[in-house]
Write a structure and sequence with these properties.
single chain, 169 residues, 0% strand, globular, RNA_pol_sigma-70_dom, transcription
Length: 169
């Protein structure tokens, strides 16, 4: 099959429509605003490079999640070897389009930030109301493994939030 030339207008519209999911990924994978902006740009670049290979066999957002998560994880590996991260507890700013000064949302994203890479990916996908099949497809896990991991992740998040509330009291 001949590779199609990417359509910039269509791509830009798809990115604009789905940019919230990129912001959510950058939020939980990097701590400071400058690094989040850099990661956002890197994800967009990787999406553009990969766009000619998108065949429509899955929803665009599912494909986008896969590329964005792989880019975020790869980027974090590179960053960890070169710089020290700020504590997620220092993070006070969440993009306004999905937080709107909601302290509960801020607390949830801080807790998610404390999870390991794959758990962050799974919970973000679940929060986006992706099906277990879609989460499995994006992460490379089995559907049953996704189910088990989600139960554990939810319990872990509850423990992290409860511990944070105790510390703040």
């Amino acid at each position: 099959m001949k590779e199609q030339k990417p359509n910039k207008k269509t791509f830009s519209e798809l990115i604009e429509k789905n940019q919230g999911l990129i912001h959510k990924i950058t939020l939980v994978y990097v701590d400071n605003p400058a690094d989040r902006e850099d990661l956002f740009q890197e994800i967009c670049l990787q999406l553009w490079k990969s766009y000619p290979n998108f065949r429509g066999k899955s929803k665009f957002s599912t494909w986008m999640y896969r590329v964005a998560l792989n880019t975020a994880i790869s980027n974090i590996r590179k960053m960890k070897s070169s710089i020290a991260f700020e504590s997620i507890k220092e993070y006070k700013q969440i993009p306004a389009d999905f937080a709107e000064d909601n302290e509960d949302v801020l607390q949830l994203y801080r807790a998610i930030g404390q999870l390991n890479r794959i758990d962050k990916a799974i919970i973000l996908l679940w929060l986006e109301e992706k099906s277990y099949d879609e989460i499995a497809s994006i992460t490379g896990l089995t559907k049953s493994n996704v189910s088990v991991k989600l139960m554990r992740i939810k319990k872990k998040l509850e423990e992290i939030v409860n511990q944070t509330v105790k510390q703040e009291s």
